[in-house]
Design brief:
The protein is mainly alpha-helical. Helix content is 78%, strand content 0%.
C-alpha cells in the first residue's frame, strides 16, 4: 500500500475510523440476534397471547440490564485477554470453573434442542419431516464452522439473523391498538404465579448463561484489544436494543391477535404459532414471513450456542479452541462442537415430545442466573486493573442490577413452578 492509501485508512482519518468500526462490530450483534432464538420467540408469543401487553414493559426494562451484563463480558475479555471460564479458573480455582462450565453445558444443550425444534417446526409447516430438516440444518452448521474462519462465521450468522427483522414487519400488519398497549405497559399483576412464571421465562430468554461465555470468547477470537472497547460497547448496545425490539414485536403481534380473541390458544410449537396467526395476518405474513424470522433466529442461535459450548469447555479443560485453527490443530474444539450439533439434531429427529421444553429451558436459564451473574460481577471487581475495574457508584449500580435480576429470576421461576 502506498503512503497516500495508508494515510487514507489511518485510524486518525474519518475513513480509517469508519473502517475500524466496521471491523470491530459483530460479536455484540451476533450474540444479541442469537438471544432472540426460537425459544425466546415462543416465550414472547405465549406472553402476548396469555397476558396481552402486560409483559411488554419487562422487555423494555431488560434492554439496559442486558447491556450492563454483556458490557462486563466485553470489558473482561478485551482487558484481560482471557475467556470467561479461564478467568474463573485462574481467580477462583478449577472446582468453581467446572461448576460454572457445567451450568453452561446445561444451558447450551437445552438451547440447542430448542433451536432445532424451531427449525423442525418450520419445516413441518411445508411438509418437510423433522428428520429431513435436521439433516439439512446439521449439515449446514457443520459446513459453516468446519470450513470458515471467525470472520466468515460471524458474517453468515449476521446474514441469517437479519431474517429476524421479519417479525417487525409482522407486528406492523397486526395493527396493535396504541391505547391498549399503554394500558398493558402499566398493568403488572405480580400477585399472579402464572404471570410470574412467564416473567421468569422472559428473563431467562433474554439473560442467558451462554451469552456471557460466547461474547467474551468471540471478541478474543476476532483479535480485538482494549483499543476497541468503545466500539465493542456500541456494538453491544445496538444489539441489546435490536433483540428486545424483536421480542417486543413478537409479543405485540400475538397480543393484538390471539390476545384479543383466543388467549388460551396452545402456542408450544412454531407450527401452532404460525397457524394461529394465519387467520389474522393472511397466509403470507402468518406463515412465510414468520417462518423466515424463526429460521433466522434458530440458525444464528444454533451457531452461537454450539460454539459457546466448545469454547467454554475448552477454557476450563485447556484444549485449543479457535475458529482460526484447522480442525486437525484443534480436534477437541471441533469435536465438542460437532457432538453437540449431532446429539441435539438426533434428539429432535427422534420425535420425542418436546412441547414443554421451551419454557422449561428459559426458566432454567433464570434459575442459573445467580451463578452466572455472581461470577461475572466478582470478576469485574477483582480481576480487572484499576483503570477498567468496576468501582464507585457504578459498581454499586451494577451489583444491584445483577442481584435484582438474579433474585427476581429465581423467585419468579420457583413461585411459578411450584404454585
Amino acid at each position: 500500500m502506498d503512503n497516500a492509501a495508508a494515510q487514507t485508512f489511518a485510524p486518525s482519518t474519518p475513513a480509517g475510523r469508519a473502517r475500524r468500526w466496521l471491523t470491530v462490530i459483530g460479536p455484540g450483534i451476533v450474540v444479541m440476534l442469537a438471544d432472540t432464538d426460537a425459544g425466546s420467540v415462543v416465550t414472547a408469543a405465549q406472553s402476548g397471547a396469555q397476558w396481552g401487553y402486560k409483559l411488554l414493559a419487562l422487555q423494555l426494562v431488560l434492554i439496559p440490564i442486558l447491556f450492563v451484563v454483556q458490557e462486563l463480558t466485553v470489558r473482561l475479555g478485551l482487558v484481560t485477554g482471557r475467556g470467561h471460564g479461564e478467568l474463573i479458573r485462574e481467580r477462583f480455582g478449577a472446582g468453581w470453573a467446572w461448576l460454572s462450565v457445567s451450568t453452561l453445558m446445561f444451558a447450551c444443550v437445552g438451547a440447542l434442542i430448542t433451536e432445532f425444534t424451531g427449525i423442525a417446526g418450520a419445516g413441518l409447516l411445508f411438509g418437510i419431516p423433522a428428520w429431513a430438516s435436521m439433516i439439512l440444518a446439521v449439515t449446514a452448521l457443520l459446513a459453516i464452522v468446519w470450513t470458515g474462519s471467525y470472520v466468515s462465521v460471524e458474517r453468515i450468522a449476521i446474514a441469517l439473523g437479519a431474517f429476524e427483522l421479519a417479525f417487525i414487519a409482522v407486528v406492523c400488519l397486526a395493527h396493535p391498538d396504541a391505547h391498549v398497549v399503554m394500558q398493558g405497559l402499566v398493568s403488572v399483576p405480580l400477585h399472579d404465579s402464572k404471570y410470574l412464571y412467564l416473567a421468569a421465562a422472559n428473563v431467562g430468554a433474554v439473560i442467558m448463561p451462554w451469552m456471557v461465555f460466547y461474547q467474551q470468547s468471540a471478541v478474543l477470537d476476532k483479535g480485538l484489544t482494549t483499543k476497541d472497547l468503545k466500539v465493542a460497547r456500541f456494538d453491544t448496545a445496538v444489539g441489546a436494543v435490536v433483540t428486545q425490539v424483536i421480542m417486543a414485536a413478537v409479543l405485540m403481534t400475538t397480543a393484538a391477535t390471539l390476545g384479543r380473541t383466543n388467549p388460551n390458544a396452545p402456542l408450544n410449537t412454531v407450527q401452532q404459532i404460525a397457524e394461529a396467526l394465519t387467520p389474522f395476518l393472511g397466509r403470507t405474513a402468518g406463515q412465510w414471513v414468520f417462518v423466515l424470522g424463526i429460521l433466522g433466529a434458530a440458525l444464528v442461535a444454533a451457531i452461537v450456542v454450539s460454539l459457546t459450548a466448545a469454547w467454554g469447555l475448552g477454557e476450563v479443560a485447556g484444549y485449543k479452541r479457535s475458529l482460526e485453527h484447522h480442525p486437525r490443530e484443534a480436534p477437541w474444539f471441533y469435536g465438542v462442537f460437532t457432538f453437540g450439533v449431532l446429539a441435539a439434531g438426533a434428539i429432535v429427529a427422534s420425535g420425542i415430545n418436546l412441547i414443554s421444553v421451551t419454557l422449561a429451558v428459559e426458566v432454567m436459564n433464570a434459575l442459573l442466573l445467580p451463578v452466572v451473574l455472581g461470577f461475572l460481577f466478582l470478576l469485574a471487581i477483582k480481576t480487572l486493573p484499576e483503570s477498567h475495574r468496576l468501582k464507585g457508584a457504578y459498581a454499586w449500580l451494577v451489583g444491584a442490577v445483577c442481584l435484582a435480576t438474579a433474585g427476581f429470576g429465581v423467585y419468579a421461576g420457583l413461585t411459578g413452578a411450584f404454585s
